[in-house]
Amino acid sequence: MKALLRIALVLLSISIAIPVADRLTKAFDPYGISYLAEINRYTQTAIRLSPDHAREGQQGRIFQNLPEVLHEHRRFTFQTDEYGFRRPREWDYAPDETGRYRVLFLGDSVTLGWGVDDEDTWVRRLEREARGPEGEPLRCLNAGHLIYETVQEASLLEAWGPVHRPDLVVVTFVFNDVQPSWNTYLAFAHGQAGPALEPGTSLEAGETGRLTPIVERFAPNIGAVLRFREHRDLYDRTDKSQLAPYKFYPEGLERVLGALDRIRAKAAELGAELALIDQADQRPMPELVAWCEANGVPYIDARLSEEQAAQDVRNSAIDAHANALGNRFIAEYAAQGLIDAGLLTPAPE
């Protein structure tokens, strides 16, 4: 009888300790595990699918940000305007406004500025720190979307460019643009997003120890920490060329360059200038630089230096997006590159 009582007390203690430990894990947010829930919240509640998303997934837009979204996340606020563009808290934009030089930014989560408040994104910093060719104030329209790649961005410009009539279109390239968005979107949409071990890379779902799924069932926050550690260890042991997005290079470049052709054609039709910002971690791709040179498109290298990257420039171990400091560095490169190209001018001191 005493033995049964001891077993019951042990089981009771465990049943109390596990949820308490899980809540403490959530509160202290080790490795930034809140990122996983926040990304899944975005894909479940902040986007709308295009009507033909299943058929058009490989060639057109899969989804677009919903209008008038307001998400208060753990470390930042995410808010969109009536067009699904990221916006500051105070926002009086209308497509027919005058007196401002309008810049439309196309890109993925790097452009969106995931993980920081809007005022700390590099797009909004650039809006404050630069002016139009004639010294006019900028109106920066942030059309960044999580999971987007160049094909998605081309389709967005074709749909929304005629509405907003930008003076300048800035497209941001990151290395995972070589990977089609479709499979990545499906994983996120079904709540299967894994931790971001490096910008734009992830391991296949299910590559975890046997214990992790059991822990995740009863203690999801502790399970997320275990999954991240297992993925990180496995990533260190894996041939990177076999992982996404690396395994899509160089074949995926054909899609990128084709989408860039579409963006260039649409910008020309709108009478807008075009510039490309390279924010890939890897060295510049010769094919990308050659495309810019052949088409007269300014190429701006906004990759962080080794000294900058060695600083605390990421949101967390799991969330490799640039934090406020990282966004400041990107803004400096972008502003200087656009000024050197004659597309913008410095803001008054």
Q: How would you briefly describe this protein structure?
A:
The protein has helices at about 1-30, 35-45, 55, 110, 120-130, 150-165, 180-190, 210-220, 220-235, 255-270, 285-295, 305-310, 325-340, and strands at about 45-50, 65, 70, 75-80, 100-105, 130, 140, 170-175, 275-280, 300, 345. With about 350 residues, it is α/β, with parallel strands linked by helices.
Layout of helices and strands:
Elements: H1 2-28, H2 34-45, E1 47-49, H3 53-56, E2 63-65, E3 70-72, E4 77-79, E5 101-106, H4 109-112, H5 122-129, E6 130-131, E7 138-142, H6 150-164, E8 168-173, H7 181-189, H8 211-218, H9 220-237, H10 253-270, E9 273-278, H11 286-295, E10 299-301, H12 306-309, H13 324-340, E11 345-346
Parallel strand pairs: 5-7, 5-8, 8-9, 9-10
Antiparallel strand pairs: 1-2, 3-4, 6-11
Helix pairs in contact: 5-13, 6-10, 8-9
